[in-house]
Amino acid sequence: xxxxxVLFDLDSTLCRSTQDDRKLHAEAFARAGVEPFCTPEEVRxxxxxxxxxxTDREFFRHVFERVGARADEGPIDAxxxxxxxxxLRDPTAVEWRPxxxxxLQRARQHAQVGLVTNGTRDTQRAKLDALGIxxxxxxxxxxxxxxxxxxxxxxxxxxxxxxxxxxxxxxYVGNDYRADVIGAKRxxxxxxxxxxxxxxxxxxxxxHVPDYRFASPTELTTVF
Length: 224
Description:
two-stranded antiparallel ribbon, 224 residues, alpha/beta, six-stranded parallel sheet, 41% helix, HAD-like_sf, 2 domains, Rossmann fold, globular
């Protein structure tokens, strides 16, 4: 199927942070005055399970609460860790994921294109401006500001409604199995999964299977 509509995820699909994740992690704990009790990998794993945050600070607070509970740390100052993390993260410190610029250009030549991201408008717009693609999409859904976040079908359905596009002619491209593949399939879209180096594998018996799985965004050009 050649899609008439292509919706993209942003973080780790189109772009990557250029900040040193381990250095940022260590500095956040130092700034918050909390003894480190987890790794950046454990933080990333917990982040995929948070679906009820309206701000970046609230999101990271939930993340650290969950990591702390799993580590059986007892009471921790999750809000201080969240505040330090948000202060240290620079949303403009991003670069293209290799092959992503070409994939987006190809999609724009053959389909109407939108963006569906779980981040807040201010944070994600800063990334789009840094990449020079704030005007590259015919619709943008910042789920943290407008709908329930992925993997809820709501942000996908919102984007399709704004494009007046049917789900069965649409493709969603993302790197996160839980948020992107499950969310897209729940909304009735074709799902293209392009995991990045830090992404978790799907469960051994996944509920939803991606229609495409690529090693690089470059391979998306084979769909058209």
